[in-house]
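Re: zinc ion structure - here you go.
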Amino acid sequence: MKVIVSFDYELFFGDTPGTAERCLIEPTAALRDIAARHGAPFAYFVDAGYLWRMEADRFRDTAISETYDMVRRQLAQLAAAGHDLQLHVHPHWEDTRYEGGNWRMNLARFRLHAFGRELIRDIVARYKAALCVAAQGSDVFCYRAGGWALQPFDVIASALKENGIYVDSSVYPHGVDTSSLRCYDFRGAPPDSVWRFEEDPLRKAVDGYFTEVAISSIDVKPSYYWRLAWTKKFGGSRYQAFGDGVSRSFPAADIWTKLTRRTHYCVTLDGYKASLLHDAYRRYVRRRREYLVLLSHPKTLTRHSLKVLDDFLTTCRGDGSDIVGYADFKRS
Ligand SMILES: [Zn+2]
């Protein structure tokens, strides 16, 4: 089996976004060491709106300029070490300002779809250009929607096409979130690892322009979320996230669903959820799946996550499973 270890490289969203040092630089440096030890390339979906915003505002404040340089340095190191840097779009950076030493985020337009078609085109072009400057010659052809807000895809398809994006990696089978913030429904996704599509990522089209590389998912029992809540509170520093920001709180109805019903989530290294990785891997191997695609975030990794990743890469090597980036899907 081939395994893609992907990370969304971003701050938190809302009133407490956290610092680049703690949310990005420190955990990613730890990942870089693990990757080097195992000779494994990882894939980073970089929140390119953050780069664009810092690039645009860097002369207004030396703190922005220093952070921008630090983040760019890290991305250049990742590119030089053979890691994959791809496009992640969170368009709320259009409405975010730097005030009093902090980013003031306005999440009213969290989805790319909240902008008109012309502006979507402009945003994708600007953000991709900002990423290409930082990515130092890496080939950027793959997209991941911020907050999985990919649908309806036809609204953003031409903006991606025009900017040389022909691979998407946002869909996770059985995933659903009907909140107005994200609003996605992947319950009708094909049961495959990879497929072609044209304007609807859930409908296979043999000669479709786009390739979907699905994020792997697993079903999670309610008892797991009860354990997770306990570990977060009493688990100690091993289970403390690197990031110093605060996640947006989920609606009470969502939390109740997770605590009372089986739900699906991405295969991940984030926080305590990393404990499910080994089982997910075994299941994917048993089903003879072609790919296992992990989605994690440096900001929510813990010491426990890093240990799980280290052990996981050793297991993969022992089994002959290859760690790859998105280069398999690159077109000449
Ligand atoms: Zn994101």
